[in-house]
UniProtKB/TrEMBL annotation:
Signal peptide stretch: none
Single GO term (MF): oxidoreductase activity
SMART domains: PKS_KR
Keywords: Oxidoreductase
Protein's recorded name: SDR family oxidoreductase
Record SUPFAM superfamilies: NAD(P)-binding Rossmann-fold domains (SSF51735)
Domain of life of the native organism: Bacteria
InterPro entries assigned to the protein according to its UniProt record, in alphabetical order: KR_dom (IPR057326), NAD(P)-bd_dom_sf (IPR036291), SDR_fam (IPR002347)
Pfam families: adh_short (PF00106)
Homology family: Belongs to the short-chain dehydrogenases/reductases (SDR) family.
All copies of domain Ketoreductase, residue ranges: 5-173
């Protein structure tokens, strides 16, 4: 057991987290699932080979829960934590002027402070495992701020910045820090209503002529990110196009956002 590689995944009960758990477990890794969604974690575990996973009900805002969950997980891996996947996050949309302060606080606490909690607390476990990696889920909203998603975009820019900062900060300790930057991911989050409309986010995205990327494709990108040397791994055509436009055609991207095309990552 001591030589089996291991990954601890927040948001492991659905979407990207679930797809990543399936991929890594299929390749022989032990998987720790963390989520507030206990039923979702049970669903994920049922999709994995028997005995390859363990589940930890926790909220990424709860620092004591982080310590307890990571302690319990590494007790099953011979002390190894090869990858900590900071993936948990919530979507939230709508005009900022109409967004409650409670919702702003919740998005920032889960998406940004939760990821910082994972990095701060997870570092000791990662540093004790040679060749380890902190992997963060950012978003195409971290390429150029998305109209209708101001708090969400702000948190994902923060995750991207944290990734770059820690890539430099932790290099001396031999801990890699990476992010995946997906665009529109085909997960249950897309079924929610788009801000200020009676259409789902899925309908808004596809109606704008933008493609959806499967969670399985994101899982493959997560594997590539962990094993590669790029700080940021873009996933899906839209993310690649936005990255190109942000660098070479910022005026066009600005006009697109002013037309109210919203982006949402799952």
């Amino acid at each position: 057991m001591a030589h089996q590689q291991s990954i601890f995944i927040t948001g492991g009960g659905s979407g990207i987290g679930q797809a990543t758990a399936k991929l890594f477990a299929a390749r022989g890794w032990r998987v720790g699932l963390a989520d507030v969604n206990v039923a979702g974690m049970a669903e994920t575990a049922a999709l994995l080979p028997p005995g390859m996973s363990s589940a930890y009900p926790m909220d990424v805002r709860d620092r004591e829960a982080w310590v307890a969950s990571l302690d319990a997980f590494v007790a099953t891996t011979g002390g190894r934590l090869d990858v900590l996947f900071n993936n948990a996050g919530i979507g939230s949309g709508g005009p900022l002027a109409e967004t409650s302060f409670e919702e702003i606080d919740r998005v920032i606490a889960i998406n940004l402070v939760g990821a910082l909690n994972g990095a701060r607390i997870g570092y000791a476990y990662l540093a004790a495992t040679p060749g380890s990696c902190l992997l963060n889920t950012a978003s195409a909203s971290a390429i150029y701020g998305s109209a209708g998603l101001a708090p969400y975009s702000a948190t994902k820019f923060g995750v991207r910045a944290m990734t770059e900062a820690l890539d430099g900060e932790w290099a001396g300790a031999g801990v890699k820090v990476r992010s995946i930057i997906p665009s529109f991911i085909d997960t249950p989050l897309l079924q929610g209503p788009a801000g200020g409309s009676d259409h789902s986010i899925r309908e808004t995205v596809t109606g704008a002529g933008l493609e959806l990327t499967s969670a399985e494709d994101v899982a493959l990108a997560a594997w590539a990110a962990v094993h590669g040397d790029k700080v940021h791994t873009y996933v899906g055509k839209t993310a690649h196009r936005m990255a190109f436009a942000a660098r070479w055609m910022p005026g066009k991207l600005r006009k697109m956002m002013r037309r109210g095309i919203t982006t949402r990552e799952g």
